[in-house]
Specification:
Layout: E1 14-18, H1 51-63, E2 68-72, H2 82-90, E3 97-102, H3 107-117, E4 121-125, H4 132-137, H5 143-155, E5 159-166, H6 175-185, E6 188-193, H7 211-219, E7 224-226, E8 237-241, E9 246-250, E10 263-266, E11 271-273, E12 282-283, H8 284-288, H9 294-306, H10 312-315, H11 318-324, H12 331-334
Parallel strand pairs: 1-2, 1-10, 2-3, 3-4, 4-5, 5-6, 6-9
Antiparallel strand pairs: 7-8, 8-9, 10-11, 11-12
Helix pairs in contact: 1-2, 1-9, 2-3, 3-5
Length: 336
């Protein structure tokens, strides 16, 4: 296995694969229904990378040091025959971990097949327990529906983490109810600072609640202790309850983790991005469909990573947000 690093000395360890740009939710911070309406044109099927192409790319990345693969979207469970892709990636030598990020609505329908194919870890997005969730997801889906899906996922053996994006004045009143609910379930809950991904989510600094503000508030109600990072590049900062349940904080805004970012992202139509906040990507689909060998693909991936120097969150200011706003890639396209 070759070891490669980018211009800032960061190794490559994680590959995030978006398998679709479609979603059955219209969350206000990702795909607001005012923009992604019923007439919105999503990518046609022939523009998507096939499972064969995705597996080929993952195999080559495994030779370069990638150990973890995460399947994202859009909503990945909308991609037909997804367990087939999980099974193929699970069989790749060197890939030690496969995860999936989902809104959870279709877990009862597809969860067992995904588990049987080799999936063991999922992150479920849930931003409130009360009626706020219905407003946020844009489809009137109740939190109880997702909680039932989470319980099912746990019952079949999937390891579940719940992700909650916190926006000041929208769902911050739900922090304590969420902590209590998932502490009692011993399910890891992760709070995500509201990030300026894409152009359509109405982001500004005033809507951000920082990790430290969250911890101060939570500590008034719960006894939590800091847990040391388990590996280089671990994104979430974890805290532990007295019953062993965990809380995580993803702090792109207040405490950048660019210096340890080991992730590359592949969009569903084959664009390769070195950063969640990227403004452009490399057209890998055209490259691999030109008939190149695996060796040529490996050399291309090495070359692309070797020149990577993204560190957007390190440099985020009001001015940089304004300057880059026009060209940033939306979350449903690049994946979370």
């Amino acid at each position: 296995m070759e070891q490669i690093t980018d211009k800032l000395g960061r190794p490559i360890r994680d590959l995030r694969i978006s398998v679709t740009d479609r979603c059955n939710f219209r969350c206000t911070y990702c795909m607001p229904k005012e923009i992604f309406g019923d007439d919105y044109v999503f990518l046609p099927k022939d523009e998507l990378l096939s499972f064969e192409e995705l597996t080929r790319i993952a195999k080559v990345y495994a030779q370069l040091g990638v150990k973890k693969v995460r399947i994202t979207g859009g909503e990945p469970l909308l991609r037909r025959d997804l367990p087939d892709l999980i099974r193929e990636i699970h069989a790749i030598e060197g890939i030690e971990d496969i995860g999936l990020t989902t809104n959870g609505l279709l877990l009862k329908k597809h969860g067992q097949a995904l588990y049987d194919a080799g999936l063991r870890r999922i992150n479920v997005s849930l931003d409130a327990l009360d009626a706020t969730f219905e407003a946020v997801n844009g489809r009137g889906i109740k939190a109880e529906q997702i909680l039932e899906q989470i319980d099912y996922a746990v019952s079949i053996g999937l390891q579940v983490k719940v992700n909650m994006v916190i926006q000041k004045g929208m769902n911050d009143h739900q922090m304590i109810p969420m902590v209590k609910y998932f502490k009692d379930k011993k399910i890891t809950l992760r709070f995500i600072e509201f990030m300026d991904v894409g152009n359509d989510n109405g982001w500004n600094f005033d809507k951000v609640i920082t990790k430290q503000e969250m911890i101060t508030h939570i500590s008034e109600h719960f006894n939590i202790k800091r847990e040391q990072p388990k590996y280089f590049g671990e994104v979430a900062k974890y805290y532990v309850h007295d019953n062993g349940a965990k809380l995580g904080f993803i702090t792109s805004v207040s405490e950048s983790f660019c210096s340890s970012c080991t992730r590359t992202r592949l969009s569903s139509d084959g664009k390769l991005f070195g950063c969640l906040f990227a403004t452009d990507g490399y057209d890998l689909k055209t490259f691999i469909r030109s008939g190149v060998t695996d060796q040529a693909l490996k050399e291309k991936l090495i070359a692309l990573w070797s020149v990577r120097q993204d560190r957007y969150s390190d440099e985020r200011t009001v001015e940089t947000v304004r300057q880059r706003k026009k060209n940033k890639i939306n979350m449903n396209y690049i994946g979370g």
